[in-house]
Amino acid sequence: MRRGATSAPRPAVATGYSRPVALRISVVGTGYLGAVHAACMADLGHTVVAIDVDPAKVEALAAGRAPIFEPGLDELLERALATGRLTFTSDYAAAAGADVHFICVGTPQRRGENAADTSYVFAAAESLAPHLGASTLVVGKSTVPVGTAARVLERLRRGAPAGDGVRLAWNPEFLREGFAIEDTVAPDRFVYGVDGDTADADVALLDQVYAAPLATGTPRLVTDFATAELVKVSANAFLATKISFINAMAEVCEAAGADVVALAEAIGHDDRIGHKFLGAGLGFGGGCLPKDIRAFMARAGELGADQALTFLREVDAINLRRRSRMVDLARAECGGTLIGKKVAVLGAAFKPNSDDIRDSPALDVARAAHLAGATVTVHDPKALPVARRVHPDMSYADTIEAACEGADVVLHLTEWKDYRDIDPAALKAVVSSPHIIDGRNALDPARWRGAGWTYRALGRPHPVVA
Ligand SMILES: NC(=O)c1ccc[n+]([C@@H]2O[C@H](COP(=O)([O-])OP(=O)(O)OC[C@H]3O[C@@H](n4cnc5c(N)ncnc54)[C@H](O)[C@@H]3O)[C@@H](O)[C@H]2O)c1
Ligand SMILES: O=c1ccn([C@@H]2O[C@H](COP(=O)(O)OP(=O)(O)O[C@H]3O[C@H](CO)[C@@H](O)[C@H](O)[C@H]3O)[C@@H](O)[C@H]2O)c(=O)[nH]1
To answer: Which keywords does this chain's UniProt record carry (predicted)?
Structure first.
């Protein structure tokens, strides 16, 4: 049973989450989360102003060009902009008059520390506060250390003319890059962390924001601030743990001559375990799982509960060991040294269907091989522009063939479909030695070996028996 709304925040806004009501919404921060959230909210029928401090991002989005690659986002932007319900600006004053303000700014890892940098969230709250009217609802979506929401509410009330009339809810986001649009409009669940005093009104308003997905039966859970903040980081900690669990099994498989792919398939048939997130390979990267488990450990330490999360240190360590194992395998395939060897790296993004290179395992391996003396050339179907900009010291190629030209070893590090579609026989003609290492266990060993390649993979016997 869903908890029903009992009181409306103001008469202009109707109650009842199944009745679509068009609201005025502001979205602060237009990165991987905010740009998608803003466009989806406009597509649901709301009028949305999206605000970012980065003028280049604002200009691109206003012109209908997504500054990131996310499947379907360009089309969604075009559609939403054409309705006139979606605008982008750098001017916080444009947020005035909105019914709901979403905070979607970044919370990256602090340089040299495990903790999250929440300064962008507080800066956004401070910039928003002067424009908040009486009884306005601000909704935090960024992933934050537990205890942040209460501090954000204090900050908002201190800076807003309406003072204590300002309300806050924490509504963490669970979208996956590559599936961001469907995860926004049809998530597995909504979580609303609300404040005791205004809880019913806040739940009612959020129900109006999400009326369409709620009408399809999406579960909605109402909690306090702290629980909502913890739901988000514990979900990511669980996912990271599942991946590191199977990668720990991969280490044992390598030592025992067993096959982690067959092992994952077999244990996943147990419904209590399931097959999802048992993909052994190079491990997790991106702008979320790595920094979120570290920030979670740091926050637990501040709260005196550090012992509870010491296992996450091992989750992180197992994950990082996969990257060095990949470099070791590459070295072994090149006859014991990478000095003077040519290494082709297939993949720069941290996962397929995204151009996000934040904490990308693929680029980490590429850089390590480069530092070990190899000439490394990286290919990626979508992430090359950002990779070239952020890591100009590396070499890149626009085609798979050009990246593999004269290679002593090919490393498959991000499982794009383009790489599964490679004709191994054709590629063999361009490399120097036909050696491939599959860092994602996503290629068909029989196809590659059948075309005369030496195929190796993380966590699998060599040669693969399957
Ligand atoms: N990327 C994801 O898949 C995802 C999914 C769920 C949750 N999250 C969380 O959402 C938050 C945002 O992540 P992201 O990946 O979109 O980050 P991002 O770096 O892509 O985007 C953050 C945006 O905020 C803008 N910004 C920073 N300070 C600002 C300010 N004071 N006012 C206005 N704009 C400001 C930046 O210019 C940038 O465009 C993080 O807390 C992240 O952990 C991300
Ligand atoms: O079986 C698997 C599954 C994933 N990965 C890797 O794990 C990382 C994360 O993948 P995924 O979770 O699909 O991507 P994200 O877009 O980072 O999404 C995660 O992080 C988001 C930000 O917090 C959350 O909202 C999502 O729910 C959560 O899945 C990537 O490097 C994947 O290659 C594996 O190695 N093996």
So the answer is: NAD, Oxidoreductase
